[in-house]
Amino acid sequence: MTDLNITRVDATEADFDTVLDSMLAWESVSDAQMQSTVAEIIAEVRQRGDAALMEYSAKFDRFFVNSMAELTLDAEAIEAAFNRLPEDKQQALRVSAQRVEDYHRHQVAESWHYTDETGVVLGQQVTALDRVGIYVPGGVAPLASSVIMNAMPAKVAGVSDIIMTTPAPDGKVSDFVLGAAFVAGVSEVYLLGGAQAVAALAYGTETVPNVDKIVGPGNAFVATAKQQVFGKVGIDMIAGPSEILVVCDGKTNPDWIAMDLFSQAEHSHDAQAILISHDRDYLDQVQASIEKLLPTMERQDTILQSLNDRGLFIRVKVLDDAKALINRIAPEHLELSIDDPESWLADIRHAGAIFMGRHTSEALGDYCAGPNHVLPTSGTARFFSPLGVYDFQKRSSLIGASATAASELGQVVSVLARGELLTAHARSAEQRIDD
Amino acid sequence: MTDLNITRVDATEADFDTVLDSMLAWESVSDAQMQSTVAEIIAEVRQRGDAALMEYSAKFDRFFVNSMAELTLDAEAIEAAFNRLPEDKQQALRVSAQRVEDYHRHQVAESWHYTDETGVVLGQQVTALDRVGIYVPGGVAPLASSVIMNAMPAKVAGVSDIIMTTPAPDGKVSDFVLGAAFVAGVSEVYLLGGAQAVAALAYGTETVPNVDKIVGPGNAFVATAKQQVFGKVGIDMIAGPSEILVVCDGKTNPDWIAMDLFSQAEHSHDAQAILISHDRDYLDQVQASIEKLLPTMERQDTILQSLNDRGLFIRVKVLDDAKALINRIAPEHLELSIDDPESWLADIRHAGAIFMGRHTSEALGDYCAGPNHVLPTSGTARFFSPLGVYDFQKRSSLIGASATAASELGQVVSVLARGELLTAHARSAEQRIDD
């Protein structure tokens, strides 16, 4: 096993900015070969529909079927999978789904309108999307929580048809994932993966209905396909590797912090775990906890590579200096392992989710605290938000002018539209001006 | 001049669905040459900064400068441009800005939090983006309204730094556009256009600060550049040609409707104007108005081509049948030129903006009614919303668990995380479970 070697830096050192920038740097590589492979898959699915989907399932998932019915699970099949789960998993999925639902109800936007002093009715009508698609990756880990986090905001928004696709390598699909689909209100599941699943959701086939928006994580093929169909349908944000920033005053059990850092590092070799403290001794203690605990971890190889490649311990002069670093890093997950985390909130401008206090592990948020675990990564919390109900609602502007108001405002339109040389616009408004 | 030849179809005919689908079809062409030209421009600006910008201004805009100062307008210069405008334009810009500001204030989202029965503090902190960039096209028409519509939601959201870029062909820039920037609260203007302006906003140069989000319309170079920098920064929606769907009960002055259709058709040859009525005679009357008025229009060539290529008159059996067509078309602009438009709202699921009643011309919404004129096109109102304050705010989830709550919920995390084979997640939560 390679030695542990986490980069440590002092924020007062001259080269600190350079080191931090280079550690934070992460850019998705756009590969021309990948782009053209995905474009071809999408074109095939658009042209040949179900036939192409069944061929791709055989080719990529070694799942040989004679009809789309074998790739389709209806509500009954989804419920049956839930019923096959052991009691503790059923209960945990139910608790998670309920808590996520409760939280997301606070995000529902309502329609509104008012009449202004000119006599114009103005407003916004808020409606849910009709039909959405959730992509759930296959692979080793059955991502039940991902199903709940992606489907529940759609359910709360009032989306009537929530479709899920997930690959079934060798024809196998996890009851845990299907059970999560049951508690999250998924309408039907198609056992499809990769770019072909995204293409089917975007354009529809004889069997798979086309959706209005596609969300959920996936490999490079899935991510590229989502980018290519963006505009035809909506997509969620573009996700990079997961990250955590822990700020600690030195009074939290260092084993706790070590394990919190591991919980991000275990995601992938390019995940990023950063710890900030003013206390050098405390950073040493966490380092010692990491050395002690790492050999006990199932995913120690991934954790080690992540910590060595992208892990970072930052010593600040005083803990308050961490605030500026938080806003500069704009972390996906921020743990404030300090005494009075609420007092910091007003100074925090950019973070996906803020975990307040020593007892609030980031893992709570991943599974069952209530807020969404789909969060902006790689500094994009500067402009992206957590996945939410607002991603599954859309708005229509409402404008209703009385004859008087149309006459009055028509004169303003006339000046502006003629200034822009758009005379049909001008005359459309002018003809409603009273003589 | 080519003859007027608007497609007319009856919704009761057998081939109606096919005709409608083919008339609505519109897909942006993604050109590999364009992609690579834009990628090269972006790379040049990232590598050589201001020097590249000055070279591109000379090459593309015939604007030869010795320093970036000549491409930079500060707040004083922006105000001076406003002061050079004639009184009627100043006044019209002020009215428009004020009305747009008033409407958008209704969209501001506030932070919220609550403590649930488990003792977990849950909430969402809403903050404005720090700095945004507005792209304003050059060309023949000085798009003052576009400046107001793109900048004002950012201003209302509380964005502290609103930067505008606009090309200055031959060194010329419109006082009307700069005057709009003044009333809309733009902080500074850079006289830059094309993909190079987008690159400068996304990555920053020695002079141009990098922004968090780029919004505003542009030509194919600009649109392609925005797609390429998406992820590094946020962007607004992908816009297609403008469209209008007018539903009329046959009781509105046909000249009014003809001019309303012109007001979209004058935008571009691929803009789309559709009229639906149950009344064949009325459709004939609007046709006659179009024939009468078209020769009087400044932009008659564009209008004629738009109406011939993409214009559509649809006769429905009864007017209520229009509701299903509205939701199928999901129009950018919907004019309900009928007696009681409010009674239709509950049935309308997809539309960018709804103009209610005979007096509410679409042009009112373009300039000064209050709602935004940046709206989803080409059926994307199924999942996109008008540009709004929500595009310039983002959210951070808040989670604060007491020791008791962390212990209780830790047991749920344990089951779910172990079910997903993510044992560091599990142990991170488990270590906070009370013995």
From TrEMBL, chains A, B:
Its cofactor is Zn(2+). One of its GO terms (biological process) is L-histidine biosynthetic process. It holds the Pfam family Histidinol_dh. CDD domains: Histidinol_dh (cd06572). One of its GO terms (molecular function) is zinc ion binding. The active site is at 332 (proton acceptor), 333 (proton acceptor). It comes from the Bacteria. The keyword Membrane does not apply. Binds 1 zinc ion per subunit. NAD(+) binds at residues 135, 196, 219. Belongs to the histidinol dehydrogenase family. Catalyzes the sequential NAD-dependent oxidations of L-histidinol to L-histidinaldehyde and then to L-histidine. This is Histidinol dehydrogenase. It comes from Reinekea blandensis MED297. The lineage of its organism: Bacteria, Pseudomonadati, Pseudomonadota, Gammaproteobacteria, Oceanospirillales. The gene is hisD.
